[in-house]
Design goal:
By secondary structure, the protein is α/β, with parallel strands linked by helices. The protein has one domain: Rossmann fold, CATH 3.40.50.450. About 40% of the residues lie in helices and about 15% in strands. Strands 4-3-2-1-5-6-7 form a seven-stranded parallel sheet, with helices on both faces. Helix 1 packs parallel to helix 2. The structure holds adenosine monophosphate. The site of adenosine monophosphate has 16 residues, from helix 3 and helix 4. Adenosine monophosphate binds next to helix 3 and helix 4.
């Protein structure tokens, strides 16, 4: 398999969520990555949106790197169909490897695991541990309340606009994903083939 054109780490729910649009968008994101010769890096599970995005990337010929702690192999149904399934000892190792293997990060709807991963990528960028683009997909307003909370934090004097400029928030998956890949400097969207 040739070297991937780009590598995107996708954080998303280990559950499918209540709105069928969430699984649809996870499928489209995975298909876009595969169809554009990209690589998906994710948590290595088969359940929920995580399984959907991985299956869609594989179905369209993309590489999938799954990184899962040994203790979660059963609980999160490790995806044995990954191009590479890395079974690691700790959650810290998982997150470090996921960050290292990616050129950009994208958070889809998810639960506290997704929140934690997204906020860690964001805080690491703020601290200068990496300078990779980070996107938050606010699908169907799922993250509206979180974004209001963050605005409240700015009003409360604990954050400022410079931190907001470290992330890209979008309501449409395709322009957001194209922006992340382009900002990572690895492939120009206009040179990528449409699905
Ligand atoms: P969730 O969004 O809660 O469904 O979880 C999505 C993924 O995040 C799952 O693969 C979880 O194992 C993972 N996760 C849960 N807790 C953490 C954590 N503290 N750090 C990183 N990932 C986590």
């Amino acid at each position: 398999m040739p070297t991937p054109a780009f590598s995107v780490c996708v954080y998303c729910g280990s559950r499918p969520g209540a709105d069928p649009a969430f699984a649809e968008v996870a499928d489209q994101v995975g298909r876009w990555i595969g169809a554009h010769g990209g690589q998906l890096v994710y948590g290595g599970g088969r359940s929920g949106l995580m399984g959907v995005v991985a299956d869609a990337t594989l179905a369209t010929g993309g590489r999938v790197v799954g990184v899962i702690p040994r203790a979660l192999v059963e609980r999160e149904h490790a995806h044995r169909g990954c191009t590479e399934l890395l079974i690691v000892d700790t959650m810290h190792e998982r997150k470090r490897l996921m960050a290292e293997r990616a050129d950009a990060f994208l958070a889809l709807p998810g639960g506290i695991g997704t929140f934690e991963e997204f906020f860690e990528a964001w805080t690491w960028r703020q601290l200068g541990y990496h300078d990779k683009p980070i996107g938050l997909l606010n699908q169907n307003g799922y993250y509206d309340a979180l974004l209001r909370f963050v605005e409240g934090s700015m009003a409360g004097g604990f954050m400022d606009g410079s931190q907001m400029r470290l992330i890209e928030v979008g309501t449409a998956w395709e322009p957001l994903l194209q922006h992340l890949v382009s900002a990572a400097g690895l492939a120009q969207p206009d040179r990528l083939h449409a699905i």
